[in-house]
Q: What sequence folds into this?
């Protein structure tokens, strides 16, 4: 599976135009991404490494939560 490099935060506007459901973003690990999600008025974020615990270099989600909480 390859990443779709055309995706951007602005795609949230398109998603919002097609649903009245709350937008909750999964896979946030960096404080800058959490702040960007707030700019797009998402209803929630899920601090997640998408199963990255299987990789030795993956950021620990507990550490990510601490860093994100510090900026919110």
A:
């Amino acid at each position: 599976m390859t990443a779709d490099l055309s995706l951007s935060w602005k795609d949230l506007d398109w998603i919002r135009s097609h649903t009245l459901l709350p937008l909750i973003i999964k896979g946030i690990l960096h404080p800058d991404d959490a702040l960007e999600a707030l700019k797009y008025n998402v209803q929630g974020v899920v601090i997640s490494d998408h199963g990255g615990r299987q990789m030795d270099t993956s950021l620990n989600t507990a550490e990510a939560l601490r860093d994100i909480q510090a900026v919110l």
Remarks:
- The mean pLDDT is 88.
